[in-house]
């Protein structure tokens, strides 16, 4: 049983996973089981080139971020389970508040999901009632967003990235995934505010 399973290994999903992973030393997070289904084939990052993102060197390719993000997650936070090359087809919420996530290869039980699959060709069954036309992308392209209130779709289901109704910019998607992660960490911390910061130790 996962405590949280992130669906989508693009900018929002990976940012969410890194943030959750970085809370490992906190008492409220130390026994939590975190996973991410890293399907990257349809990520916007595949063909992207970045010159306008603070912290990314000019000419950084999206393809390099896809690879290095996975390496960063497995090196720094190996307790976050990476489930590779699986595509989610369906989610099912149960009366006991658990969720079953069905992929094309297997299924997983979890208490929370973060849906971060982008706004293109959304086809995950079980979430139809939350689907609407994206309000900040060109209407003719018929992109999807999931109805949400500050990323919460319904109890146990969060949405992050462009699918949450944000414009398609790297920093916005990353911030959205990070925001969801901190909301989940606050819940784990009995509602008390949290932040996870590293700093340089000055002797
Ligand atoms: C060509 C191009 C150039 C860009 N250039 C810039 C730029 O210069 N500056 C800038 O700020 N932004 C740029 N962007 C936008 C930026 O890349 C996106 O805003 C960002 O990637 C959105 O993040 P996301 O996590 O919402 O979606 P994505 O990064 O697209 O991630 C979605 C993830 O979900 C996965 N997925 C999809 N369906 C499923 C499923 N059923 N099950 C499991 N996983 C699934 C996908 O494979 C993907 O990994 C560019 C985008 C493109 C396409």
Write the layout of secondary structure elements.
Layout: E1 2-7, H1 11-21, E2 34-38, E3 49-50, E4 60-61, H2 62-76, E5 81-84, E6 88-93, E7 99-103, E8 107-115, E9 131-133, E10 144-146, E11 152-154, E12 157-159, H3 170-188
Parallel strand pairs: 1-2, 1-8, 2-5, 8-12
Antiparallel strand pairs: 3-4, 6-7, 7-8, 9-10, 11-12
Helix pairs in contact: 1-2, 1-3
Residues 7-13, 37, 39-45, 47-48, 50, 52-53, 62, 87-88, 116-118, 124, 161-163, 168-171, 173 line the site of flavin-adenine dinucleotide.
Domain FAD/NAD(P)-binding: 2-153
Protein name: Pyridine nucleotide-disulfide oxidoreductase
Pfam family, one: Pyr_redox_2
Helix content: 10-25%
Ligand set:
flavin-adenine dinucleotide
Low-confidence stretches: none
Q: Can you give the mean pLDDT?
A: 96
- Strand share of the residues? 25-35%
Number of structurally distinct domains? 1
* Sheet with the most strands, sense and barrel status: 8 strands, mixed
The number of helical elements comes to 3
* Secondary-structure content class: alpha/beta
Radius of gyration from the CA trace?
A: 16 Å
End-to-end separation in angstroms reads 43 Å
Number of E strands: 12
What is the 3D form? Answer: globular
CATH class descriptor: Alpha Beta
